[in-house]
Amino acid sequence: MKCVLVHGSPRKQGNSSSLAAMLADCLRGAEVSHRHLADLDYSGCLGCMSCRKKSEICVLQDGISTLLREEIPAADVLVIAAPVYLDYVSGQAKLFMDRFFAYLSPEYFRQTDPNKKPVNSRLPEGKTGVFILTQGQPEGRYGYITEMMETFLRKMGFTYRHYLRGCLLNSSRDIQARPDLREQAGALARLLNERYP
Ligand SMILES: Cc1cc2nc3c(=O)[nH]c(=O)nc-3n(C[C@H](O)[C@H](O)[C@H](O)COP(=O)(O)O)c2cc1C
Fold it and tell me: Residue 130's beta-bridge partner residues?
């Protein structure tokens, strides 16, 4: 299994990265690469529309180009881990996700028949997308973020989609006292181990 783990928090030892590491630690024989967005020099989508008019990939050349052009298309599993910042995902994660616009297929923009299953993505089928979110607030807040991520991952062509959410996590150390989250991460890893033996 090839797994690309994208960390969207500037706290490299923070809660979202720790939860992602709990998942990665339980992946059997997997090739896991970690990319910390805070280390990379990149911009959000510039709306140049080159990916619609003259290219099948994002033409921007910056710190996430290789990730978008090579690493994600080749991965079985993409994990995006991010904290809630002011009621949505961190800005680092949102800028990264906006660049996925280039993965949308031309059919996605042409579709007019609501009964026809759209071919949304230029990414190959069979991939798994995992979204990890950590927040200071309790459960019951930010369900809409998971809903938006479900739409995002489905639209981008991820055949399988999973979510891990850690609530009431403020200090970076809080997650160490949460065996429930470690257990959830382990259960998801077991499922991925079976899917990509
Ligand atoms: C700038 C900033 C904004 C935040 N906004 C929220 C928020 O709106 N709701 C919330 O529940 N937690 C908020 N938090 C808390 C973080 O989401 C929480 O501590 C999370 O576990 C941090 O993950 P990390 O350690 O991976 O960065 C905020 C933290 C920061 C630094």
Answer: 79, 162
Which residue, judged by its Cα, is nearest atom 29 of ligand 1? Answer: 85
Quote the pTM value.
0.96
Cα–Cα distance between 37 and 63 in angstroms, integer? 9
Segments forming the whole domain that contains residue 81: 2-195
User: Using a 6 Å CB cutoff, which residues line ligand 1?
Assistant: 9, 11, 14-17, 83-87, 134-137, 169-170, 172
Task: Write out residues in the chain with pLDDT < 50, as ranges.
Answer: none
Q: From residue 112, how far is each of 11, 30, 36, 118, 123 by CA, in Å?
A: 43, 40, 39, 9, 21
61: CATH: 3.40.50.360
**How many domains are there within the chain?**
1
pLDDT value at residue 177: 94
Reported as a single tens digit per residue, the pLDDT across 105-150 is: 887 877 777 666 667 899 999 999 999 999 999 999 999 999 999 9
CA of 170 to the centre of ligand 1 (A): 7
